[in-house]
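WP5 quarterly update. Target: MFS transporter. Source organism: Alicyclobacillus dauci. Length: 412 aa.
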Amino acid sequence: MVNFKTGALSSSQFRWFYFGRTISLFGSAMTPVALAFAVLQARQGQHLLGYILAAEIIPNVLMLLVGGSIADRYRRDRLILISNLGSGLSQTGIAVITLSGASLDWLFPLAIVNGVLGAFTSPAMRGIIPEIVNSKHIKQANTLLSTSRSAARMVGPTVAGVLVATVGGGWGIAVDAASFFIAAVCLTRVRISAHPAVAGSSLLQDMREGWSYFRRRRWIWSITAAFALMNLVQMGVWQVLGPIIAMNTFGSAGWGLTLGIKSVGLFTASIVMLRLQLRRPLRDCMIAIAISGIPMIVLGQGYGLPYLVIAAAFAGAGSTISGIAWDTSLQQAVPNDKLSRVCAFDDFGSYITIPIGEILAVPLAENLGYQTVATVGGIVFIIAALLPLTQRLVHQVTPENLLPLTPNVHEE
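Structure tokens (predicted):
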């Protein structure tokens, strides 16, 4: 059991941040299933789903570098607070559209708003942890957040699947909207110092400085490049084709169950990671994430819901280990005044391929077959995850190498 008087939770700043983030995560975990099936149930929804998802990710990717630079300049707590309020309003609009049966075209501008808000939230979220917890508690803070995320993903999709099958997915999105507003209230209790900008520096100069740091750290950009290919495959196969294949086979409730059980793996691994110290965090990060390719192969081969659920559970565990290892490595190794920019370049490189996967998934599947695309996608995912292991640094780096910011870790 985690002691509230020791570790990351001994910081009142982190406790309020953690509580607000946990509430928001539980709401947001319902949206993927609720939105996907709300769109798919509408006329021409199958062809619109990928474009609606891309309408959010494209502006998100385009604005990430600006968001990272601003997060390194100004108060990350205020940026996250404003973003939560904006997301609450946009999700309210999406819920009204899906519940009222209005034209799905109205979802596109709100998806764009969500994408822009997320571009400011993500770098600030990843950068704020070293500001509200002691450096030795960073891994525990990331693990606690991962535990909440896993628990949310375990409950949210299942509840959303039931709502879709009964009263409609729009209600799941409405819950998400409310969770953003509650999180914003919690964030009013988190206060950190502003980051004074260097005199005469511009956002463009800040971005150049962040890029210079990023490109000189091969251990960072090589893993980012691997995630670019993995995200292209996963978002196309799992996010777009997954619900379509499910609708034609085991249904929305089965798909919600799959995502929920995947989160059992996420949650279990999060609990284990509270005690487990990874001796080779970068190596373990990539081996663990490679497991996520297996459920795509199972889905493509049509092995049935029980096999898919088991594969998804293991993939969830691998995803948790990978995420905690990667975020902790960055937060311990990168100076705080550059952290949001480096995370922004990491996100930018990792996410820029997602719209391609979302848009091309259905056309490719219609020409080559849904099962074929899912199977090949899973194989490509695994290969991409393991490629960075050919680097000596990724294979050998330890937490002790990262903490002192030694030149042999960063400059190689």
